[in-house]
Amino acid sequence: MDQTAQAPTRWQRFKNSDIVYYFVRDKVAMFSAFVFACFLVAAIAAPLISPTDPYDLTSIDIMDSELPPSWMDGGEEHFILGTDEQGRDIFSTILYGSRLSLTIGFLAVGLQLILGIVIGLSAGYFGGRIDSFLMRFADVQLSFSTMMVAIIVSAIFKASFGSAFYSEYAVIMLVVIIGVAEWPQYARTIRASVLAEKKKEYVEAARVMGFKAPRIMFRHILPNCLSPILVISTVQIANAIMSEAALSFLGLGLPVDQPSLGALISTGFNYIFSGAWWITAFPGIVLVTLVLVINLLGDWLRDVFNPKLYKG
């Protein structure tokens, strides 16, 4: 036997993994990943590829307000998807709005991850009164919807610091509101995985070797709970984007001068019956498509990590 054969590299192990094997054989997953990648690249490169900067007031002309898309009568060639009531290019605002929506979605899910992992690991590993207290706290949290938490927090914040200060830190506030409102989803799932993992021999061996609880929880148990976490994260990104859109639609999200997809839909809704349907329609189509492809990827990941459900 050839003793000089090298162990496979990390990249080779990844190429030969089950997730890649199933991915290249699932056309829906590949198409969804491609569309999501396009959204992500377009959002990141928004300052480079957008025709105008919707944040730059000097580039906006109110005389260009409510222009239809370029292929309709009255449309102008350099406004492909038309303009909104302020004269901003819809295509540019969608690019910047997607950037904001995705940023809020990823950051909110990151906050959910931190809270859910810490609380779920602690509840499952220590058990007893700690488990009961943390899970009852999660039950109380679940009884409040994201909208209710947003209304309470935004009202308190605006009353304490003023609307101008709230508008300045609206992105941070939305991340905190959505993150705090949705962490129990992670905590419950991780707790269930920890209850199954902590009875296994490798955990007992780590205890015998004298490892502290935090090291056992985060270095030994947590890596074996990553599969459900990855699936939940995919779904929660879509939920966070939809939550931000709903809050912005209700006027509890981003201010008018920071157009997220939800804010664009909310603003355009006031003009939909006057004939300027494109102000709401195009951001709405982008939002629905973005959430759809993320959910399709989440469903695919769920099936891949559960062989009983996956049918190739």
From TrEMBL:
Pfam families: BPD_transp_1, OppC_N. GO terms for biological process: transmembrane transport. InterPro entries: BP-dependent_transpt_permease (IPR050366), MetI-like (IPR000515), MetI-like_sf (IPR035906), OppC_N (IPR025966). Gene3D superfamilies: MetI-like. PROSITE patterns: ABC_TM1. Residues 98-298 form the ABC transmembrane type-1 domain. The keyword ATP-binding does not apply. It is a multi-pass membrane protein. Keywords: Cell membrane, Membrane, Transmembrane, Transmembrane helix, Transport. It comes from the Bacteria. GO terms for cellular component: plasma membrane. The chain crosses the membrane at residues 28-49, 104-126, 138-157, 163-181, 221-242, 276-298. It is found in: Cell membrane. Belongs to the binding-protein-dependent transport system permease family. This is Dipeptide ABC transporter permease protein DppC. It comes from Vibrio halioticoli NBRC 102217. The gene is dppC.
